[in-house]
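Comment thread on ticket #2218

A.B. wrote:
> Attaching the input chain for the structure job we discussed in standup.
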Amino acid sequence: MKKLLLVIDYQYDFVAGSLGFPKAKDLEEIIYKKIESYQKQGDEIIFTLDTHREDYMQTVEGRNLPIKHCLQDSSGRQLYGRIKEFENAGLCFEKETFPSLDLANYLKGREYEHVELCGLVSNICVLANAVMVKAALPNTEIIVDAKATASFDEHLHEECLDIMAGLHIKVLNR
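C.D. wrote:
> Ran it. Output below, let me know if you need it in another format.
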């Protein structure tokens, strides 16, 4: 049975752009090695890409987070750094908000030994997509490596890891 690696929103704007933060850059090599390992084992890799349109500021998210980011066709929407080398290594799901319903629908009914999530931001999109994966695959082990995700707010990051553990998501490397 295959394994799945979900790389959540490891995009320029979240690492070094309009919503970037220093700890996000530290994840690049860790995520790179994970992708490389899954690829060598013939396992599936899926990327999510936060993708907004010009009307972003008029959306609910835009009114609550009024910082333009990951605009469609912008460099800020691109995968960050060396991770971009893998952009054709798996499926990509664009999403207009935190979780991806398209991703959950794609996963529903599939069989994996486990699904591992990494990327950004732990307390927002990683958490939201972990919950969607749990809904789509209720009997599959879901893993989040604490060293392969981060937040601009360390307190929220730690609370998020606690919440995921409470949802029976296996949190590694705490």
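A.B. wrote:
> Thanks. Noting for the ticket: The beta strands are 4-8, 44-50, 91-95, 114-120, 141-150, 170-172.
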